[in-house]
Amino acid sequence: MTKADLVEKVTGLGDLTRRDGEVIVETIFGSVIGALQSGDKIEIRGFGSFRIRQRKPRIGRNPKTGARVDVPAKKVPYFKPSKELRDLVNPGEAMKAS
Length: 98
Hints:
The protein has 98 residues and is an alpha+beta fold. Helix content is 45%, strand content 28%. It has helices at 3-12, 18-37, 83-89, 91-97; strands at residues 42-44, 48-55, 58-61, 68-71, 74-81. A three-stranded antiparallel β-sheet has the order 1-2-5. Strands 3-4 form a two-stranded antiparallel sheet. Helix 3 packs across helix 4. The mean pLDDT is 92.
């Protein structure tokens, strides 16, 4: 699913124009990005949570030349799906666990 597909779904929910759907989707994504940039954790019940993980600096390798490369520390976004979402994606696994 692309962002355009998501806008179409939102627009189809009611009496909304395509522009209204774009604003809604952009606002949601902008809010998630802004919260992660400020270091906050986002939790959407029944869907999952987003947070930032800190990666340590390390020494990598250039696959073409084999030369050592220093990879600096960085922050990366991380998504952890909720149990409900995992069960919906894998319905057979949920029944085995019960």
